Each structure stands twice: as C-alpha cells, then as structure tokens.
Amino acid sequence: MVIFFSYKKTKLIFFLLDGSDFTDAVLNLFLFAWFIVGQFWTWPVYMPNFEFGLENPNKYCHRNVYIFTLVHIGFVYVMFLAAILFLIALTCCARFPHLIVKTPR
To answer: What was the pLDDT predicted at 34?
Structure first.
C-alpha cells in the first residue's frame, strides 16, 4: 500500500508500507494527538479542587491522578529534550571528530 511520497534530489520516491507499519503510524499519530489534547485538558485547571463536593461533582479531580499526569507530561518533555541534546552531541562528534580524538604527533 502506498502511503506517502517525498522528493529527494528531484526524484520521486514512494514509501511502501505493509499493514503493521500502517497500523504503527496510525497509533503513533493517535498517541501524539492524545498527548497534545491531554495537555490542553490538564494545564488550564492547574491544581483543581481535590475535595469532592456534592454541589459540583464535575469539577473534582483525584489528587494522585492529577499529580501523575503532571509528572508524566514533564517526563515526556525531559525525554524529548534529552533526545534532542543527544542528537546535537552526536552531530557535533561527527562533524568535529578532531576535537574528541587526539591525533598522534
């Protein structure tokens, strides 16, 4: 099944994906969208009411669930930042190997 294409050096390249690659792509897209939507649900109600009230039960949030959500979002951002810094370091090592490896005189 042909899913998408790209241009590389003025040649059209088609990427062929089988069923499991397509499923992985759709699930990853869904998880990314769910992460973004979850942030829009979490941050506007920063530290909601943790006490259950009978007059407005829809505004209640369990403290452990909310703290877990904040920690999870923070952990994802830290891991994303670590991956970016690792790629930058790897690029610098590949681009400037003479700064890392001392050549014998």
So the answer is: 93
